[in-house]
Amino acid sequence: MATNPLGFPSWNIPGDNAWQLTAASLVGLQSIPGLAVLYAGIVKKKWAINSAFMCFYAFSCILIVWVIWGYKMAFGVQWGSAPFVGTPGPVLTSDQLLSQAILPTSGAMANYPMATMVYFQFVFAAITMVIMAGAFLGRINFTAWMIFVPFWITFSYVVGAFSLWGGGFLAQMGVIDYSGGYVIHISSGTAGFVGAWWIGPRLAKDRDDFQPNNVLMVLVGAGILWIGWNGFNGGDPYAASTDAGVAVLNTNICTAMSLLTWTVWDIVYYKKPSVIGAVNGLVCGLVAITPAAGVIDGWAAIVMGILSGSIPWFSMNITGKYFRIFTIVDDCLGIVHTHGVAGFVGGMFTGVFATPDGCAAYGLTNPGGAIAGNWKQVWLQLVGALFIIALNIVITSIIFGLLGLVVPLRMSDATLEIGDDAVHGEEAYAIFHDGQRSLLYGDTGRHLVNGGGEMGHMNVTEGIPVSHDDHMATGSVRKDSPVSGEELKQE
Known about the structure:
Blueprint: H1 14-42, H2 48-75, H3 94-97, E1 100-103, E2 108-113, H4 114-133, H5 142-164, H6 169-173, H7 181-199, H8 204-208, H9 215-234, H10 242-270, H11 275-289, H12 298-308, H13 311-322, H14 324-328, H15 335-353, H16 356-361, H17 376-403, H18 413-418, H19 420-424, E3 445-446, E4 457-459, E5 464-466, H20 468-474, H21 485-490
Antiparallel strand pairs: 1-2, 3-4, 4-5
Helix pairs in contact: 1-2, 1-4, 1-9, 2-4, 2-5, 4-7, 5-7, 5-17, 7-15, 7-17, 9-10, 9-11, 10-11, 10-12, 11-12, 11-15, 12-15, 13-15, 15-17
């Protein structure tokens, strides 16, 4: 096969391209399967499929939106005189994708093709939406989710991305967001909390008892999330640079310290080291270090780990339980705490701990933060955070307000009682014949969900509950099952 010289232009540095594609793939793995697995394990059994599928749907939908108009709105040429969004348009032709990656408004360029840059930026857009889904689990109407995803990416995410990363007004002011503490985490935390208010709460009994159905799956998802963050923060210098190494190390230092700190607080307050608590701690550490990863010293990463393991812990476990707003709004997984609060903490302390050398290594002209005598950076970080918060309160409210006029935002109580089986016609686990039926085979009998006694047997077609005893007496099985009703009764 002949070598195509166009595939090896002089500006393409193979090492940078290889690292950027690797980093992008690591971030993609954080969404699928990382957060999909984490969500599937942390919810009740009856919501495992729905929760995971929300992640896969968002990932797929956003990629199509991204390449048709989203990428250019976030990283393209400024749209007229608006310093917060780029001109929409597709990025799909060979001449576009094979050309050198350039961000025209900011003037940044990288030594690999535009195709690599487009995919790298896409996985960040996708994980923002996947994170936000954590606030809506266990009750959002799936049709509403399908419509909400492309609208929110189009009218909210791209504005934050362009303003901070694409050369918009916040970048011009000098706000530092190394890898998404603002664009991704404050954004998803704010939009998730606001959206949870618009959607409404889960069933009261589900809010009172929403124990994870598989803690080991939660740990697997959290592990993928943690290691995947090496690409999340390590890829943002847009090169296999020295600063990428600093970002990766600081990411892991802060995360480890945050997990340890959160665990200590759990032991002090609850007298037990909680595994789910430790997962919250590591997530907060990952989030908090994100805006600062490559521009601070290692000792500052330790301090930020202590802060991210403490401040969100108090907001979730103390403020979240006693302040009325947090008890009214059903933020299922506490996304406002683990991403909104943690992202704010990280952003503000980036303004404190940023060093001149770290900023220079990242290609910034900022003279460091307060630690270097530049207290103005703290103010700039506050301005950036407030803009992202206000943007997401307004845009999320507008989208959900209008969407609610078209489709229900929340599933019906009858559907919420059943869960996955009612929404998707599928169940997560096939244990002792549970979940082994299929509507494709004409089966209409529903098996017990989330343990015995929650709903009993239900006729899917008619929605008529039947007691557990009636189910066992009839010996209901699949029509094509090799096990007869009599055999089932003998079992």
